[in-house]
């Protein structure tokens, strides 16, 4: 069963009541909110995602609710809630949906220490994955969105989830939040992509969520093996350049940027070492998205030959 | 509201059953597992449950999805144990040539002495007790070897140094673990006796003779003080601390003289009432085995019947989490009550109300908790 | 005199390019060691050695002429390794460890 099997009314009822049950990659979530703006965006954007079995254990219980104090009447605020804790400053009601998405990121990052969590985008084709470790100015979300609309499957735009037992990558194909200029870039690159509503004036500027292609969502349980580590940097006007990168540098960047490298002690060290040993590592510099996509496409046949 | 109360009752029952009889956990249906994981996380006993199931060889007999949560807790705990024991190692290295008696307190003591509360328990900082007159020397050496004083507001700094029993925490510039150096276990202003000299006289050395831990009776009483006197309005009293007391009693009771010593020491230090509450609640909530004659003796330290009845309801309310979907007002109230009482016991009441209003003012100013989610660096968790 | 601590035996070494990336189980830390630092640790393999003796061994391992390794390169590396708990100094005066 998928979320789209619920009509709008049932969906809103569940969301406002016992909670909407939904699966994102390895995680089952219960989401609660009585805010109608959030219900509308969620019903549209979460439509293709599966609903867990009735007796499934849920990993996170999240929601967006109005504050408990007098503030609720004064400025129409909303708080991200997890297990009835409200760890963050409130948002305006209009930004409830982005707040939910960011809050879910926080839950994953702070709790999922049974996995090694790299801070990286990932895409897969032919069973092999490219990981794009995060760094300032990387433009990885934009690049990732372009790739998944050009024949690659989405693993995640934020979390490189590595299963410690075998080093496999676990997909977490959630909505991709695009910010400010990137929104237009992707609208031009792939006008038929599925865009959610625009949220203006958030702390990160304007945000629009892109729904991944249904194929990425349907295959969320198919793991992948990392084959390439590509460190992207977008700079206006930069010519395309895809250069091999020293593995020692790749190790330091991947480990240094991970969400929980330290927590997993020696296991994390071995997983990152193996990954860096097995993967070809590149630094990618680009300004034109289509050129970057083409250059990454070329990696794939090169490895087959 | 009735539904909320029932849900909370169910949540608490699950939690206590998990702590008392972990061998029944493989039979738990998925819906109960889901709730148990949430309340156990709240009460910070996920690691404890994992540790009990691991020792009983039952981790393969529970739902795999539940097991991943327990595994995550275990990984965090293992990591923190390494950090704490390494910090002690580096501390000894830095203090080479300085011969100072060091007593490891709380979790640091449990870990380094290999005591049962260390199983499945998360450790944050290193807690030490050293003689007051040696503090300046020790602090100076640590500062010279790469530690620095953590920045706190000047009011809290003065509060620490003058009223409290510890100096503001130190942290090494490269590592995250904080070192809390205490010179007594409770403030001078407390009406509980806590002169440190007798503690040093009876402290037990570890395999490394430079390190010591409190004698068993002192360790239990310190754990009780930690449990009852250090509440806060958000968390109330920490169930995890009662579990520590339960574990320590189970371990030390193997020595036939232990109970007699414990009762005598409690009376000597004015901790009789605390021990009374500690034994009552450990027995009632965690099925701790306490010899009937000890309970009989402790009746002498019981409060008046009205207070006793009230505390018998309030303490569990403050210790046990509510159902995670239904935060209860009553629990908040009783938490507040106990928090006040805790502070009253640590400080003269006039100073208490002044200190509490300043803390409240700081909270309103937003100086403390509310973080901006959008800018949060998720890696700093 | 300097000597390796027992924690050196537990180190997990991985070589990438001409650097060693090393995991230290006792502290849960990951280090990046250059050639000088890793040769210092290797030179301590057999027990205690004087600092000049260690320096000579490292110079030989790195293919440098005698006195080729300046003390500016050598001493900070030794101090660092002491701070990390991998080297102990059997020095007489521990006033400044």
Characterization of the model:
The complex is a heterotrimer of chains A (305), B (381) and C (97). Chain A has helices at 8-16, 36-45, 71-74, 96-111, 140-148, 181-189, 214-218, 247-257, 265-278, 289-304, and strands at residues 20-24, 27-33, 60-65, 77-82, 91-92, 116-125, 128-133, 153-156, 159-162, 169-170, 176-179, 194-202, 205-211, 225-234, 241-244, 280-286. Chain A is of the alpha+beta class and 305 residues long. Chain A has two domains: 3-111, no CATH class; 116-304, no CATH class. Chain A is globular. Chain B has one domain. The longest helix of chain B is centred in the first third of the chain and has 31 residues, at 64-94. By secondary structure, chain C is α+β, with helices and mostly antiparallel strands. Chain C has a domain at 2-7 and 35-89. Helices cover 34% and strands 23% of the residues of chain C. Chain C has helices spanning 35-43, 51-61, 71-83; strands at residues 2-4, 12-16, 19-24, 29-33, 87-89. In chain C, the strands form two sheets. Chain C has a three-stranded antiparallel beta sheet with strand order 2-3-4. In chain C, strands 1-5 form a two-stranded antiparallel sheet. Chains A and B meet through helix 4 of A and helix 2 and helix 4 of B.
Our measurement of the CA-to-CA distance between the termini of chain A, rounded to an integer number of angstroms, reads 41 Å
Counted by DSSP, the helix tally of chain A is 10
Number of helices of chain B: 16
Instruction: State the major sheet of chain B.
Output: 7 strands, mixed
Structural class of chain A: alpha+beta
Coarse morphology of chain A? globular
Oligomer: heterotrimer
Could you tell me how far the N terminus lies from the C terminus of chain B, measured between alpha carbons in angstroms?
35 Å
How many E-type strands of chain A? 16
Residue-averaged pLDDT of chain A, rounded? Answer: 93
Assign the structural class of chain B, choosing from mainly alpha, mainly beta, alpha/beta, alpha+beta, or little secondary structure. alpha/beta
């Amino acid at each position: 069963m998928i979320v789209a099997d619920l009509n709008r009314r049932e969906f809103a009822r569940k969301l406002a009541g016992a909670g909407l049950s939904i699966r994102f990659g390895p995680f089952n979530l219960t989401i609660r909110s009585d805010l109608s703006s959030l219900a509308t965006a969620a019903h549209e954007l979460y439509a293709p995602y599966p609903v867990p079995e009735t007796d499934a254990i849920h990993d996170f219980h999240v929601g967006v609710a109005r504050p408990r104090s007098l503030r609720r009447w004064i400025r129409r605020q909303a708080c991200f809630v997890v297990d009835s804790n409200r760890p963050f400053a409130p948002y305006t009601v209009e930004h409830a949906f982005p707040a939910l998405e960011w809050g879910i990121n926080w839950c994953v990052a702070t709790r999922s220490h049974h996995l090694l969590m790299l801070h990286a985008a990932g895409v897969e084709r032919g069973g092999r994955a490219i990981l794009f470790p995060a760094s300032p100015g990387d433009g990885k979300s934009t690049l990732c969105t372009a790739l998944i609309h050009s024949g690659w499957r989405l693993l995640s735009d934020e979390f490189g989830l590595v299963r410690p037992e075998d080093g496999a990558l676990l997909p977490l194909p959630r909505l991709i939040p695009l910010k400010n200029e990137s929104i237009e870039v992707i609208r031009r690159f792939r006008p038929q992509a599925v865009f959610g509503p625009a949220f203006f004036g958030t702390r990160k500027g304007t945000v629009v969520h892109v729904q991944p292609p249904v194929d990425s969502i349907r295959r969320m349980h198919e793991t992948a093996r990392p084959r390439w580590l590509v460190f992207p940097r977008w700079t206006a006007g930069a010519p395309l350049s895809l250069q091999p990168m020293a593995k020692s540098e790749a190790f330091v960047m991947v480990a240094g940027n991970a969400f929980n490298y330290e927590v997993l002690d020696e296991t994390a060290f071995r997983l990152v070492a193996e990954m860096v040993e097995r993967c070809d590592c590149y630094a990618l510099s680009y300004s034109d998205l289509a050129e970057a996509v083409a250059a990454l496409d070329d990696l794939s046949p090169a490895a087959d030959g | 509201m009735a539904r909320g109360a029932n849900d909370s009752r169910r949540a608490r029952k699950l939690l206590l059953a998990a702590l008392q009889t972990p061998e029944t956990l493989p039979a738990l249906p998925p819906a109960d597992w889901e709730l148990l994981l949430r309340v156990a996380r709240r009460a910070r006993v996920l690691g404890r449950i994992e540790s009990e199931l691991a020792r009983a060889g039952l981790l393969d007999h529970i739902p795999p999805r539940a097991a991943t949560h327990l595994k995550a807790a275990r990984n965090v705990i293992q990591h923190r144990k390494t950090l704490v024991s390494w910090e002690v190692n580096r501390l000894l290295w830095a203090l080479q040539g300085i011969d100072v008696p060091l007593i490891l307190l709380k979790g640091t003591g449990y870990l380094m002495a290999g005591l049962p509360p260390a199983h499945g328990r998360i450790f944050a900082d290193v807690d030490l007790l050293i003689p007051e007159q040696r503090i300046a020397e020790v602090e100076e050496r640590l500062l010279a070897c790469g530690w620095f004083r953590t920045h706190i507001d000047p009011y809290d700094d003065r509060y620490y140094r003058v009223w409290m029993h510890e100096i503001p925490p130190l942290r090494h510039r490269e590592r995250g673990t904080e070192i809390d150096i205490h010179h007594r276990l409770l403030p001078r202003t407390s009406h509980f006796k806590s002169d440190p000299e007798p503690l040093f006289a009876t402290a037990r050395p570890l395999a490394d003779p430079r390190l010591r831990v409190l004698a068993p009776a002192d360790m239990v009483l310190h754990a009780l003080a930690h449990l009852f006197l250090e509440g806060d309005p958000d968390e109330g009293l920490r169930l995890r601390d009662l579990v520590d007391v339960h574990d320590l009693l189970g371990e030390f009771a193997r020595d036939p003289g232990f109970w007699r010593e414990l009762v005598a020491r409690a009376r000597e230090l004015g901790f009789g009432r605390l021990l009374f509450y500690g034994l009552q609640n450990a027995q009632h909530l965690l099925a701790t085995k306490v010899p009937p004659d000890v309970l009989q003796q402790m009746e002498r330290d019981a409060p008046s019947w009205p207070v006793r009845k009230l505390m018998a309801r309030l303490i569990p309310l403050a210790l046990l989490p509510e159902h995670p979907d239904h935060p209860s007002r009553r629990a908040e109230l009783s938490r507040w009550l106990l928090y006040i009482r805790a502070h009253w016991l640590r400080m003269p009441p006039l100073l208490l109300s002044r200190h509490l209003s300043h803390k409240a003012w700081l909270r309103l100013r937003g100086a403390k908790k509310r973080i901006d989610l959008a800018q949060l660096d998720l890696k700093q968790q | 005199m300097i000597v390796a601590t027992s924690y050196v035996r537990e180190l997990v070494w991985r070589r990438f390019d001409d650097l060693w990336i090393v995991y230290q189980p006792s502290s849960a830390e990951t280090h990046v060691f250059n050639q000088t630092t890793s040769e210092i640790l290797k030179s301590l393999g057999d027990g205690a050695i004087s600092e000049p003796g260690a320096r000579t061994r490292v110079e030989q391992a790195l293919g440098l002429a005698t006195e080729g390794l300046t003390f500016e390169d050598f001493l900070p590396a030794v101090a660092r390794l002491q701070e990390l708990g991998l080297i102990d100094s059997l020095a007489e005066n521990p006033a400044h460890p």
